[in-house]
Amino acid sequence: MHIADVEKAQVLSQALPYIQHFSGKTVVVKYGGNAMVNEELKDAVMSDIVLLSLVGIHVVLVHGGGPEITDMLHRIGKEGRFVDGLRYTDEETAEIVQQVLAGKINKNLVKMLTVRQGRALGLCGIDGGMMKARRRLSDKGEDIGFVGEVTSIDTTLIDDALRLGYIPVIATVATDEEGTVYNVNADTAAAKVAAALRAEKLIVLTDIKGVLRDTADEGSLISQIKVSDVPRLIDEGIIRGGMIPKIECCVEAVRRGVKRAHVIDGRRPHSILIEMLSDEGIGTMFF
Questions:
Q1: Which residues contact 143 (CB under 8 A, 6 or more apart)?
Q2: pLDDT tens figures, 175-197
Q3: What are phi and psi of 32, to 5 degrees?
Q4: Residue 12 phi, psi dihedral angles, 5° rounding
Q5: 7: pLDDT confidence band, cut at 50, 70 and 90?
Q6: pTM above 0.85, yes or no
Q7: Of 229, 286, 231, whose CA–CA distance to 261 is shortest?
Q8: Cβ–Cβ under 8 Å, residues 225 and 284
Q9: Could you report the per-residue pLDDT of 243-256, keeping only the tens digit for each?
């Protein structure tokens, strides 16, 4: 589709006040879902992040990698299983998670940002003791192996990377004080990182439009939700199923000092830019 020069100028003009407002501030992006496996969407996300970085916004990218972990487990003939939405992680699976997240996926994302002229630095929660965790149980109290609950975040490496103009790309594996490695849910890790950084925004990419009053009607999007209203929306069944832990992460981030948290549709190309730099905005904002 051809865009006239005047339309391009209008788009850039509309973005200017947002660029001025967010320049020098920190935004944490949790990257996952379809946007992580669809090549066109991957390209759009990486381009968005580089653009934000180039205009002076400090972007921290926190990523998971469930589909690639599952694929690697299948390659070695190992069946994965989930308990209350969390991957059961025995010792062998924990090693694979570390290899896939902190190795293959993390470095591929760094590469993708670098070839788009972004300055990216790959990190994981183990580096510099950035992310400490302890073993967690399922919601029903079941043992789920080496799945971690974050106990603390040391932002020193992240702060140093941002100060030097890098985009930190963080894989969500962590250790306890004895050095045991844990698989950490990426939504939870992103919320903890955003809170520790006192970020301006936490943006969570998902495979849905946002919080819908009626899941069968995408026109029923709730664009803004006060965190104090979330328990009621859960009780009413408007927020339910797999959305509950994502929303609870957003709530925790806001309550711990993040100014705004957003659940946005990662299936839409350039969704990050639309949310950050336009009057339109998308998804559901928590405040």
A1: 137
A2: 999 999 999 999 999 999 999 99
A3: -170, -170
A4: -65, -40
A5: confident
A6: yes
A7: 286
A8: yes
A9: 898 999 999 999 99
